[in-house]
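Um, can you check?
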Amino acid sequence: MADFAAWSRAVQTRMESALDRALPAESLAPQGLHAAMRYVALGGGKRVRPMLAFAAGEAAGADADHVEPAACAVELIHVYSLTHDDLPCMDDDDLRRGKPTCHVRFDEATALLVGDALQSLAFDVLARPLPGLYGETRVEMLGLLARASGSRGMAGGQAVDLDSTGKTLDLAELEFMHIHKTGALIQAAVLLGALSAGPLAADARAGLERYARCVGLAFQVMDDVLDAETDTATLGKTAGKDAAQGKATYLTLMSARDARGYAAELIADAERAIEPFGPAARRLSEIARFIVERRY
């Protein structure tokens, strides 16, 4: 079995090809919109959410070809959210994945439409029929992604984030925000990957949900630490932006050292949650460790 570095590169390569096939060609009208969609979706990013989908699919015994549409759909939702988050009316950033953000490279109206179009494309990709996955499961997967993306998930978390700027949040309030803004889509990636094998038993689903909740929070803890400690060139986005904007982060509640320790505790809990899957959950465990060890 390939080591984690080789496996993650293989997933990234596979996703680049899958996204390339899913996205409209630049030659198709409207050419400007399609060029902007491809600009933001291709050639960058860690692809953590697709990795989680493929890893959860492996744990549940899914065919990788069946996982690919789910991985592609969740990444399209993620990229749409980044495109909108960077807009001047949101986080107002000019750098993403090491290159100018969509509204800087094109314009604000195009960036808004890019996000809208990527969101629609995600559901188009996930709705396409696949052999061996029956209608009831596909409908469940579509509903899961819709809820994770909406006002009770990612969009709602972003609303809380915007409303919390300049305010002091306690740990429970901060984690409520991140469980929605970041964690909802991470949980969707895990569950969509596993559901690509078919219906899940209640105990298996509960373990994966607990894993995803812990991994999602740990991911955000480390994002906050890296935003404070790492330079812009390494991050591929503007470093120190959270503090400059008065955002509520884990580092407003604890030291960087304590935050790293908290992330490690969350990852240990995540690994306990997937123990019943045995060796099949190896990639899920490796991703969890990657999240706390990453440098960007």
About this structure: Residues 222 and 294 are 8 Å apart (CA to CA). The mean pLDDT is 92. The first helix runs from residue 4 to 22.
